[in-house]
Amino acid sequence: MGNLLTYSGIVTKVRAMQAKLLTKEDFENIAALGSVPDIVSYLREHPAYSNILSDLDEKMIHRGNIEKLLMQSFYGDYSRLYRFAGIHQKQFLKLYLMRHEVDLINYCLRIVFNHYDLPFDLDYKKPFFDAFTQLSIERLITSKNIDELVDNLSGSEYYAPLKLLRDSHAATLFDYDLALDLYAFQTLWKKRKKVLKNKELEIFTKDYGSKIDLLNLQWIYRAKKYYNMVPADIYSLLIPINYKIKTDLIKELVEAPSLDEFITITKKTIYEQKYKFKQGYTLERMYIKYMHHLHMNDRRNNPNSIAVVNTYLFLKEFEIDQLTTVLECVRYKLTPTETMQYLGGVQK
Amino acid sequence: MIVKMKFLNISGPKNDIDRVISTYLSKYEIQLEQAITELKTTDNLLPFLEMNPYKDPLAKATQFTGYLKDPFVLPDTTLNTDEILELIQECNQEYIELQERQEILKKSKEELKEHLTIISPYKNLDFELNKVTRFKYIKARYGRVPIDFYNKLEKYLFDSLGVIFVEGGRDVNYVYGTYFVANAESFKTDTTLKSMHFESVRLPTDAYGTPLEAAESLKQRITETENKLEQLDHDIADIFDLRAARLAGAKQKLEELSQNFDVRKLAARMKHEDEAEMYILCGWMSEKDTESFIAETEDDDQLTVVIDEGRSKHFGTPPTKLKNPKVFKPFEMFIRMYGVPNHDEMDPTIFVALTYTFIFGVMFGDVGQGLCLVIGGGLLYFIKKINLAGIIAAAGVFSTFFGFMFGSVFGFEDILEPIWIRPLSAMTTLPFIGKLNTVFIVAVAFGMGIILLSMILHIINAIRSHDLEATWFDANGVAGLIFYAGIVAVIILFMTGRALPGGIVLIILFVVPLLLIAFKEPITKKIHKRADKMEESKGMFLVQTFFELFETLLSYFSNTLSFVRIGAFAVSHAAMMEVVLMLAGAESGDINWIVVVLGNLFVCGMEGLIVGIQVLRLEYYEMFSRFYKGSGREFKPYIKKNIK
Asked: How far apart are CA B339 and CA B332, in angstroms?
């Protein structure tokens, strides 16, 4: 009952926001539209995006700009939830942002390594990151080289792992990316026990553990299929956390001599056994489907817990991803049927 | 007193300058002036441009004497200049040699330390380092793996790879160790471990035995090097200590030589067409010194000394050298703080000494504390030569004297009978004002006397400098004196209850002097028959004059009242000590002596400080502002006389 009281406010808030998410019909309608401006005017009618899109200049209607605005909608939702949350829920929300922080640093790493020119178009993220994270975009984008970038991260938790890499010299962009990702996954995995308790910890462990397992699967698959990597290299890029796929199985998967054998071995994993996915699903699609399924389940089974917030944020980000995909499809003149295929048919 | 000064020109053949400086000028105090700028009327003057050859040796000597164990070694001054330079060079050579050796050792120490940091993480490996790298069929590689990757290696790879990893130790981020692999497998294993971020390390070639042994031997070698460095430090110190006395003497001599040589900076050289080049020095010397200087140099035909009598009229003012009897010497400090007197002003040192100590005594009248000041200040003055301590001692004498007058010993008012009065309780009734502490009235009367005295001093100074306006019409001149003396006389008459003089006398006493003060500028102009116009209009002049007059009157009034503080402090001293005794429980008869001692210390320290400052304020503000300018410049001899 304690949960009911702590969560009654935020859950109601989430419900209201949830109602504004786009439905499957919405996506079908959007996919049927002929041009980007049409989609914008469609979304303007929609309460979740009307505010953000209303002051968009007609001349500025461009896929890139719209994607940035859509992201603003997520930041807006996050801020609203954060303001509504209690101390304990705020801790969780902070952890949730880690993924976004890592993405930002990754982007900055690319700026430095690939020598992008100004402007880097990060201005739209600035107010949000200044308010909610330990990173300062202003400092990061002034970095001229990788050493400066790492120095500019000092004060944040990402400084230590990256500094170690920098001091060893001769590290590539991939090494930095990998180190950051692995750090983020491991930290979140460790911190979950501090922030969450009992049932909530259980839910999170299940969601996040499955995510890690599935990502590891995906990565092994890609490493094999596209890069023909040797087992040792594959091991080095795996997230060193096992949830439901045990060490021996991982070894078997990594050392599978061919892609077909790899696919056969994946059938042994609990994920394939429990949820008999349709034949022909790629691992990527399976990942999306499964995560979606998990989150919806969590919400249904634990209506008064952090799972509700977590699921909402997941759905919102997912929706923005989908919208981005639709915008791309429409821009490149794909037929509505093709577009719907890319979306994979998973909504709300 | 101010010493009379003479301006001297000294000249002679250019090469003779060093001899003249060391034989004559180092004996007399002379304030040298920049010859080229001072003698601007003479042509053909050139500066000396020689480099000071003693500068570098002096810097070296200063550095070397800094290394001496005993910095107060008795200097050996028997060396001549060449011997000194030789000594310094000798020391320098040896010093540089040892320093080079020190540098080499420091470098090798750094290297050893580096090797130690490489080898120390492997300390758990229990085999000889170099032996395993020489195996025929097995390869051994040293290095480190990040901990995360090491965990992966353990989890996935060690079972399937033909490799043995021996862990040597780990820190927060890395696992250190060696892996062994058969020659045939080595390529595959090397690449695998490389992709797990294994960083191989080249072990230092000078490491033998097990890592632990190697580390130990490295540590030992580092200590050995450190010992050698320390030994070298001693050797360096020895270089100098062996020659300590001579070095100290050399430094002293070099300082002198260098200073004498630098006289050239102030000298000028002069060349007439056919004659040899000459040097010229000029500067100020006291009259007495000048006489003996001229007497001594009379027989020297290389040297020409000219006394420039008209100097002070034509060029700047001579510097001021104060000379007072030994008792008053400490008080010259107060004069220097304010500014030394101009050469035609009178030196107020004696005046300050007398008034300062007297007023201090009145404000701080206590036999016991006064004697403490005399003893403490006297000791400090004679041991450490602190001027302020001398002043305190002198003030303490008067403090004791007034202690007897007021009958106060360490705050106890009942031991001595006062010779004069008790400041706290003695009252006088005055007409118009009423009952008042006697000391206040006496203080104000005393202040009036002091102000009158200051005015007289002002008049004397003004007459000396032939300043008509300041002598007669100034607020501190004759006009002011008559006015103020008139007021003082009237007040005294009134207070003692006698009849006042008639109206006409009063008008002459008060109104005439005031008018003179107000219109001093036009009157002076009239007398001097100068026709220069007034700058402002008549109306503005009148308004300004009115306010100036008002300010003058106000300052007479406030300056006089300012002297009340003398009485006030006399009273407050008694009152404060009363409080101390009360706290000590003197009234109940059971006296706490600790409180008495602490209270006395506190009052003595705090009141002494406050009274000292207040009296100085009276001196500077109430007295000096009336008669003293202090616009002179102090006499600063180029070479301080060290013979007494």
From this structure: 10
